[in-house]
């Protein structure tokens, strides 16, 4: 039970981090591309 919850939390965290990384990359590219 605890292991399943841990795995689910880890997957959720990874998903959130992935979304944040995508957003950050987009923001950085926009920042660098604008003169």
Characteristics of this structure?
Transposase, 35 residues, 1 helix, rod-shaped
TL;DR of this structure?
This is Transposase. The protein is mostly helical.
Describe what this molecule looks like in 3D:
It is a single chain. This protein is mainly alpha-helical and 35 residues long. The protein has one helix at residues 2-33. The longest helix has 32 residues, at 2-33. The mean pLDDT is 89. It comes from Coxiella burnetii (strain Dugway 5J108-111). This is Transposase.
Shape: rod-shaped
Number of β-strand runs: 0
Largest sheet: none
Helix content: over 70%
Order of helices and strands: H
Write the layout of secondary structure elements.
Elements: H1 2-33
